[in-house]
Specification:
4% strand, mainly alpha, 849 residues, 2 strands, two-stranded antiparallel sheet
Length: 849
């Protein structure tokens, strides 16, 4: 058990720091796994581009008792597609990397400061090399190496003190000293830096030293899996029964699999039979090495594991894992490939060398079934260091077969990292220069080409953007590069090239929703609806953003009526996506389904989906509107919503007419119909139908003729239709006032029929007699006349009510209007009534006095 829990006999402080560092190591492993899984998605993402499509919709219907009329309206469908973003720098990962690098470096320094003389001198040389790679002169904008010399003097001085003058302090004291010195140095960099992103600069330039340390660590642990196989077969063996054959079998199976990985990674074969990532090999060796390195140091008597070895191993492990995580977090594909190739090659060559080391040194012991694992690093004939040296020679030989392409990939990755830093610093000239240096090392790497395309895109250089994106597709294609190139080709009016590019992308990435969606969008532009539906369906089947896929498919079905939208089986109440909700509200079968809640401030700038949702909910009669007319007006007045101004005005008018104030809605739409140019026909048609619904013949006819709705206008022009409307208004009044008893009943009847003179007359009577509020009744008549000033019955009410409230001059104005509207006989008859009423009021007034 002690072999597994070797820290049990350590002091409490040593255990605490050991577990704390293990937590840091496991965090770096988790970060590496996260960034490895997402790959290029760490630096490029999909943006959503929305567009509106307008469809006809019946917003209301009514009957005049004989004929049924429909009020045509419109609804907006939202269609969305994906746009590949420009490449971003993962600054969070960069800061995490430099933080972990410094932690690992402090662990190394604390270990080296307790090592023997020659190990210590080697460590100081390595420290100098690491600090040189940080390029601290750039951070402080110096022309000399003063910053490097100060940093080296500080860290090397402390290490020299512990190594030569004060050897008694434990590991925790040494580590604390170096951490304190690092904090002081970090404060100086942060406080006195002359550049915008000092730590990003240090992380970018310092990557080269991290790569070197990572290479050394990978070589150090690459035999651990084979060593663990020795432990397994040795423990499982029976004394007197050989374990050599078992070891040869399991190690051969392992090495054969690693060989296949090596051949695939270096593109000697293209079988794709092993989905295992090289990162799995690395993590396995890293974890096994925690116990394996202890056996190496103790059995070979190199240095003490508890005081030096454990912390040296953990420091190198943290640095290597953080470096690999940073490389994947940056989407740096040449360096990603280089690391994976190196890991596989190291495990192949060192694994083979270690197997040979075991056989040559312990063949007799294994044949006898002895526990070889207990003396694994105490060879009888050949030292392990010879096999490590042979591993290096073997790897150099392997890499030479590809003209050391791995070195050029690593160089390209390093230049990419520096270019990313300058791009973040908005220094396009230096960023472009370093990206091109990376291309000189690896001309077809994705990051350099996509980075240069991003720089060209930023200055609207379509030619170079397209050229670099095309190069990005040559070796390591990505869905982003396909989508970006297709977009550029569309903007250059090369439609079919854009289409063919997306088709190639879908062949390469058949399950990619963004490419499927964009291809469907292009097919719709060519009116090839069957292909459009096919790819929209595939996008839904392979969706990562399923609401977007559902919204697009629903929009297509509503526009082209290809299938019943109910086949989508969409639960409108569960989705919170504005685009999907907007399209659902345009779907007439679901029109009684209330939309999802819209969380929007009145000073918000609307996006297309929010606008469409608000418009579709408000412009029709039957849907639940999300906002009152007053709130909609505030949204409309926001400067950023000016492009929606006219449509929102119609929505406000509809909100008033259907839900709040019919007179105000009619007034607003009448003004809009007279002023509008883009939708003049629609607004006049709706206005005509609204007036017809209120029984106003003349204005209904005029607006319908302007709208070009001759069919409805001809119905109105038929002989006797005015009489039909009169009967319709009588029916309206009878229905509205059938059970009217209270003020609320009469107010409700008036709100529903604000232009009906019969309803107004009854309400006026109620207000005059029961409520004793003739002034309020006057306002009802006055408001109705603003929209129905050709109605003689309303003018009669106006004259009588004006006289009643004591404004005779208003009554006289009304009489003049009646003179033009009535025949002489009818006018004289009303005039006699008016004069009699006037005389009666004057008599009552005199009697009262």
């Amino acid at each position: 058990m002690y072999h597994w829990f070797f820290w049990q006999n350590w002091s409490k402080s040593e255990k605490s720091i050991f577990w704390a560092i293990l937590v840091v190591l496991f965090f770096s492993v988790a970060a590496m796994a996260w960034y490895t899984y997402y790959g290029i998605d760490n630096v490029i993402h999909w943006d959503i581009l929305s567009e509106l499509d307008e469809v006809a919709k019946i917003s209301d219907s009514f009957s005049d008792g004989q004929l049924k009329f429909t009020i045509n309206g419109n609804a907006y469908l939202v269609k969305e597609r994906f746009i590949a973003s420009m490449m971003q720098t993962n600054t969070l990962a960069a800061y995490g990397f430099i933080g972990l690098y410094l932690i690992g470096l402090n662990l190394l320094l604390a270990s080296v400061s307790a090592m023997p003389k020659y190990w210590f001198l080697g460590g100081m040389v390595l420290l100098a090399g690491i600090l040189v790679t940080f390029h601290l002169e750039n951070v402080f904008n110096l022309t000399n190496q003063a910053a490097f010399l100060i940093a080296f003097a500080g860290f090397a001085g402390v290490a020299f003190y512990f190594n030569n003058f004060n050897k008694s302090p434990g590991f925790l004291t040494r580590l604390s000293s170096f951490l304190l010195l690092s904090i002081v140095g970090g404060g100086l960099i942060t406080g006195f830096s002359k550049i915008n992103h000092p730590w990003l600069a240090v992380a970018s330039y310092g990557l080269v030293s991290a790569i070197v340390l990572s290479v050394l660590f990978i070589l150090l642990v690459s035999h651990e899996i084979v060593a663990s196989l020795v432990w397994v077969v040795s423990n499982a063996g029976v004394k007197g029964k050989g374990s050599l054959s078992q070891f040869l079998i399991v190690s051969s199976i392992y090495l054969l699999n690693v060989l296949l990985m090596f051949l695939e990674r270096n593109r000697y074969i293209d079988w794709n039979v092993l989905p295992i990532s090289p990162i799995v090999l690395y993590v396995s060796s890293l974890l096994l090495g925690i116990w394996g390195f202890r056996r190496v140091t103790e059995e070979s008597d190199t240095f003490h594991f508890r005081n030096i070895g454990a912390w040296l191993y953990l420091g190198l492990g943290i640095i290597t894992t953080a470096t690999i995580a940073f490389v994947f977090a940056s989407g740096n594909d040449p360096l990603m490939e280089a690391f994976q190739k190196f890991i596989v090659a190291a495990h192949l060559v060192m694994g083979l060398a270690f197997a040979l080391y075991v056989v040559l040194n312990f063949i007799q012991a294994m044949q006898k079934g002895l526990p070889v694992h207990r003396i694994l690093y105490k060879p009888q004939f050949l030292e392990l260091s010879l096999f490590r040296l042979g591993t290096i020679v073997g790897m150099v030989t392997l890499f030479s077969l590809k003209n050391f392409y791995i070195y050029y990939q690593a160089t390209a990755g390093y230049y990419n990292t520096i270019a990313n830093y300058y791009k973040t610093d908005n220094d396009g000239v230096y960023a472009e220069a370093f990206y091109k240096e990376a291309l000189h090392a690896d001309i077809l790497n994705h990051q350099s080409n996509y980075g240069l395309a991003s720089l060209a895109m930023a200055v609207n250089d379509k030619e170079n953007t397209g050229a670099f994106l095309k190069s990005a597709l040559e070796k390591n294609p990505s869905p982003y590069a396909y989508a970006g190139l297709s977009k550029i080709l569309q903007e250059k009016d090369m439609f079919f090239d854009a289409l063919f590019t997306l088709q190639e992308g879908v062949r390469r990435f058949p399950d990619n929703q963004p490419l499927l969606t964009n291809l469907a969008w292009l097919y719709e532009k060519t009116k090839v609806t069957d292909s459009t539906q096919h790819y929209l369906t595939l996008a839904r089947e392979n969706c990562t953003d399923c609401d977007l896929a559902e919204a697009n498919l629903l929009a297509f079905q509503l526009k082209y009526k290809k299938n019943k939208a109910s086949e989508n089986r969409i639960d409108a109440g569960k989705s919170k996506d504005d685009a999907l909700q907007a399209n659902l509200t345009a779907y007439e079968i679901d029109k009684n389904t209330p939309p999802g809640s819209i969380q929007l401030r009145t000073d918000s700038v609307l996006n297309l989906s929010q606008f469409a949702l608000i418009y579709n909910c408000t412009a029709g009669k039957d849907l639940q509107a999300p906002y009152t007319a007053r709130v909609l007006k505030k949204i409309q007045q926001k400067e950023g919503n000016q492009s929606f101004y006219e449509d929102l005005e119609f929505a406000i008018a509809s909100q008033n007419y259907y839900r709040e104030n019919k007179l105000e809605g009619l007034k607003q739409l009448t003004i809009l119909a007279n002023d509008s140019t883009s939708k003049k026909r629609l607004y006049n048609q709706v206005a005509g139908m609204w007036y017809l619904q209120q029984g106003i013949f003349d204005k209904a006819e005029r607006h319908l003729l302007i709208a070009g709705d001759r069919a409805s206008a001809e119905v109105l022009q038929k002989q006797g239709y005015r009489a039909i409307l009169a009967e319709y208004q009588e029916t309206q009044a009878e229905e509205a006032l059938k059970n009217a008893r209270t003020k609320n009943d009469f107010d409700k009847a008036l709100a529903a029929n604000p232009l009906n003179p019969l309803v107004i007359a009854r309400v006026t009577e109620f207000y005059n007699i029961r409520l004793k509020k003739p002034g309020d009744a006057y306002l009802f008549i006055f408001n109705a006349l603003q929209l129905n000033d050709e109605n003689a019955a309303l003018w009669k009410l106006y004259v009588q009510q004006s006289l009643k409230i004591g404004v005779e001059n208003y009554a006289i104005d009304g009489l003049e209007k009646l003179r033009a509207l009535l025949s002489p006989a009818d006018y004289q008859a009303f005039l006699s009534t008016y004069q009699a009423q006037k005389a009666l009021m004057e008599k009552n007034k005199v009697g009262f006095e």
